[in-house]
Amino acid sequence: MGNPGLDVVNVKADDVTSAHRQAELEAFARDLVAFEPTLIAVESESNEPGFADSGYSRFNAEEDLRVARDETVQIAYRLASEANVERVAGIDVSEGEIRFFPFEDVQAFAKKAGRSAEIDAQVAYFEDKAAAFEEQQSVATVSELLLTVNDPASIESDHRRFYYGMFGFADDQEQPGAPLNYGWYARNAIIFSRLGSVARPGDRVVVVYGAGHAYWLRHFVEETPGFELVELAEYVRK
Predict the structure, then answer these.
(1) pTM for the whole structure
(2) Could you state, in order of their start, the residue ranges of all structural domains in the chain?
(3) CA distances (Å), origin 221, targets 10, 118, 188, 205, 225
(4) Which InterPro entries has this protein been placed in (predicted)?
């Protein structure tokens, strides 16, 4: 919603502070309140005990929802306030023992190998998807848009196309697609481990994160004992 432009392909989001988007966000939040969340995890870094997100302690619904365009405020803080959730955890990590997203190495390999057109085609595919999403904004509600980006089939297809598609950029000297994959896996593994460290038995958790993290975070939830994946579509109406 308040995209800082740091991804390979970025979507231009509507102004979510407009009156009609605020009404739609209220409806979205009401649907999620029915989930009865007890913990909300967001894409911010925290050094506080329990990874407590300091932004929420300063949140003022009347003021912040009128001006902030970030989904952490518009979705996570709004939901926490309306559902009386006391724990909002910033579980993100931006740096680790390895590089988390060395995409430039794949690009450099492709250039040397005369395969830059293949990278360009990958990027173009996601640019087209972004353009289609931007067009969808003119006719769809916030709930419909969020259901679109949380569609399980689309999440899996996009991950396989981009990340697994990078394994093919390799020769007997370099394999830059492998570090791209295990770097992104590593970041999300740490994020999930942080979530696991603050989640308590019986918690009902809402995770508000960038779409690029969805594949691995969903995977960890589905494969880790003690966790159960609940689809957004089970609670949110179009």
Answers:
(1) 0.93
(2) 19-96+190-234, 103-183
(3) 26, 33, 11, 11, 8
(4) DUF5694 (IPR043749)
Give the pLDDT of the chain (238 residues) as one tens digit per residue: 655 545 565 666 788 999 999 999 999 999 999 999 999 999 999 999 999 999 999 999 999 999 999 999 999 999 999 999 999 999 999 999 999 999 999 999 999 999 999 999 999 999 999 999 999 999 999 999 999 999 999 999 999 999 999 999 999 999 999 999 999 999 999 999 999 999 999 999 999 999 999 999 999 999 999 999 999 999 998 8
Is residue 126 within 8 Å of residue 235, measured between CB atoms? no
* Closest by Cα among 103, 97, 116 to 176: 103
